[in-house]
Amino acid sequence: MEVTDQCVVALTWVLKDTLGETLDVLDTPVEFLVGGDDLLARIEQALQGYSAGASVQLHLEPEDAFGDYDEQRVFLAARNLFPETLEEGMTFEGHALPAGSCPDAPTDALYTVTELYPEHVVLDGNHPLAGIALRIQLKIEAVREATEEEVGRGSAGTGFFRIQPPAPGGHTLH
Hints:
Blueprint: E1 7-17, E2 22-34, H1 41-47, E3 55-60, E4 74-78, E5 91-93, E6 110-116, E7 120-124, E8 134-145, H2 148-153
Antiparallel strand pairs: 1-2, 1-8, 3-8, 4-7, 5-6, 6-7
């Protein structure tokens, strides 16, 4: 079966920046819905017409991947508004930021603590890969028809290309 819209593709990959530094390796196949919300549009376009066993290499500019880095999405907040256990790398959903910490921060974003100072915290609402050109080597491990449920929800259940808070017990505070 070839990759078309409304199918599920199982992928493995190696993701690198343009300097060749490896950013992510997925060596166990993960399923993604083509034509849904699981994959970046450029990746979906590149996979069209290929079948299991094919390898595809892509160069993605920031506008085709996670966008340009936007300094307007970086906020300073008072350190005393956050829990004592705060660490760099922790994430907060915008609607769950401590009251009064960032009144101008959009509530529909995910914010990562990027720096801690005695008096303030730096929160970054950009995707961690924003502003970075990427090279991705994809391997199609399998292709199948999507179920009605997958098509209805727009996902095969994988959100790699969307930033979401980690599972409970991770470094997210709510």
